[in-house]
Amino acid sequence: MQSVKQQTELGAVTTDRKNILGIVGSPRRGANTETLVDSVLEGAAEGGATATKVILQEMTIAPCRACNYCQKNGKCVHDDDMESLFELMKKSDIWVLGTPIYWWGPSAQFKAFIDRWYGVNPTIFQGKQVILTIPMGGGNDHYARHTVGMFKDICNYLGMICVEIIVAPGMNGKTSVRESSQLRETARAAGIRVMNEK
Question: What is the pLDDT of residues 183-194, one digit of tens each?
């Protein structure tokens, strides 16, 4: 998988294969969220996709200032990594978005990323296929209900196709997902299925 820097330097992707982009919203490298996203990407790659992954924690993404500069000028007031990330999102057919649950909501990194969608031409989102992965320490799906509901509403509003939501409760240790072959297989199977979507 290529990093965001490598992908940006390569310029436009010229391939007949589907492009799938994994976006990891956890501040911890190699932990549950990244492992789930990786598993989906692996399944999609098996089906012939070109896979790219970015780590939000390693990017400079300023929070939205609610200044409406974007509405008046057609671009965000912040000059940061969101511009290159949006370019990758445009070139990708499928997005795999991952966030842990912190206080019943997404991580700060993931929320800042989502908030910056406000200042973008909404055509970037229309028709995109999305898989959402949500690991958490809480013992049941109930803890993810606000994040799942928020994301479903966002998909409906922006015209995205939410193909699948993988909620993984009880992932208390940093490597809990890695230690669950069943969960990794569930995520990998989602990646395979999305490649068969028309």
Answer: 999 999 999 999
How far separated are the first and last CA of the chain, in Å rounded?
24
- Domain boundaries in the chain? 19-195
Residue 94: C-alpha distances to residues 18, 27, 37, 43, 52 (Å): 8, 23, 12, 13, 11
Could you tell me the two tokens for 127?
């028709």
DSSP state of 97: E
- pTM of this prediction? 0.87
Return mean pLDDT, the chain.
89
Q: Distances in Å between the alpha carbon of 1 and those of 21, 46, 95?
A: 10, 12, 14
CATH class of 19-195: alpha beta
CA distance 74 to 191: 34
Q: What is the bridge-based pairing of β-strands 129-135 and 161-168?
A: parallel
Instruction: Locate 140 and state its tokens.
Output: 């049941």
Determine which helix (DSSP H) or strand (DSSP E) holds 83, and give its type and residue range: helix 82-91
Separation in Å, CA 173 to CA 29, 31, 63, 130, 178: 13, 9, 29, 26, 10
